């Protein structure tokens, strides 16, 4: 007696030969499913009689009774639709509306990166928990929000924490159960997110340098007012405010070519490696004293330039007021 699979293949071959456009009746499909357990409807609750983890359905065999990569494609996706791969620039970023309490704010995404939020943003730092209704406002101000699943690896969380503290003042660190355990770590900016299965320092740093301070109101540097469950407030490492040049200035690469091995230098003289281990580094704060001097000089130059621009703007406004007053007197 031939084996069930061989019988099935013979029946399939006969159908293909006698039907140029293969069309099977419901009874034929049920017979194949019932007799040989090769195909099974997801609505059938009868247990499979095979130990094959794929349910007895072989891979790589095109068959119109199961999957020929051409029939019933609209079940998964309508090929005529362009919605799934088209970005609507007008609706890609949701408007940053300020919504008052007690009105609830509900998001369509598990991890939103734009949309309505509360008028008072959170103080920067690490929290036991802070809801998205608050930290979305931080993203709008150009901050970076670092999320981790509560069940994530503690060493990986410590690594993410030290990168956040070493890169910028405007950061929020909080657990979030909406993250998948497949990607339990995330870095968020306004309109952007980086989901990670494990913390890769070089990717996180690149994300920060590309997207930090570029929110809808990235120029706002003031700290927030919301502080419920704030665990560790953010501190300024060297500069009074974040700038593109100062991003991740507390991080240095360790090793010659290993871009994923980073060290975070703290003010207490300790160095935290990318593995979360603490090393003695009393003799190093930055790579050199000249680096500190150069950074301070560059920051001072930027501040002078900004003050000059504000002074010129103020003078122009004064001249406009004087002109308007003279016209009024006439």
UniProtKB/TrEMBL annotation:
Signal sequence range:
1-25
Q: Which residues cross the membrane?
A: none
- Write the record's keywords in alphabetical order, separated by commas: Signal
Could you confirm whether the keyword Cell cycle appears in this record?
A: no
Query: Per its UniProt record, what Pfam families does this chain match?
Result: DUF3105
Give the GO cellular component terms, alphabetically. Answer: cytoplasm
Task: Answer whether the UniProt record assigns the keyword Signal to this protein.
Answer: yes
Name by which UniProt lists this protein: DUF3105 domain-containing protein
Native species: Pomacea canaliculata
């Amino acid at each position: 007696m031939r084996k069930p699979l061989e019988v099935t293949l013979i029946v399939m071959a006969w159908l293909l030969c006698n039907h140029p456009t293969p069309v099977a009746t419901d009874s034929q499909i049920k017979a194949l499913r019932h007799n040989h357990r090769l195909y099974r409807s997801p609505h059938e609750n009868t247990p499979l009689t095979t130990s094959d983890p794929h349910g007895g359905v072989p891979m790589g065999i095109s068959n119109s009774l199961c999957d020929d990569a051409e029939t019933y494609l609209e079940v998964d996706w309508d090929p005529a639709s362009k919605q799934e791969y088209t970005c609507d620039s007008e609706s890609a970023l949701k408007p940053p509306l300020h919504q008052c309490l007690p009105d609830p704010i509900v998001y369509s995404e598990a991890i939103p990166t734009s949309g309505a939020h509360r008028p008072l943003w959170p103080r920067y730092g690490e929290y036991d928990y802070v809801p998205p209704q608050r930290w979305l406002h931080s993203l709008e101000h150009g901050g970076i929000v670092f999320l981790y699943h509560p069940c994530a690896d503690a060493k990986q969380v410590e690594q993410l924490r030290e990168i956040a503290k070493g890169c910028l003042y405007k950061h929020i660190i909080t657990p979030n159960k909406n993250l998948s355990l497949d990607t339990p770590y995330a870095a968020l900016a306004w309109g952007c997110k980086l989901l990670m299965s494990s913390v890769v320092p070089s990717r996180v740093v690149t994300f920060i340098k590309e997207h930090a301070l570029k929110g809808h109101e990235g120029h706002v540097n003031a700290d927030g007012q919301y502080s419920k469950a704030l665990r560790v407030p953010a501190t300024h490492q060297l500069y009074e405010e974040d700038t593109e040049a100062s991003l991740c200035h507390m991080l240095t690469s360790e090793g010659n070519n290993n871009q994923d091995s980073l060290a975070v230098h703290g003010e207490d003289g300790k160095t935290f490696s990318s593995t979360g281990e603490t090393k003695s580094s009393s003799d190093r704060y930055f790579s050199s004293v000249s680096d500190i001097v150069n950074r301070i000089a560059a920051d001072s130059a930027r501040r002078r330039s900004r003050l000059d621009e504000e002074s010129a703007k103020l003078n122009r406004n004064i001249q406009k007021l004087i002109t308007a007053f003279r016209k009024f007197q006439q």
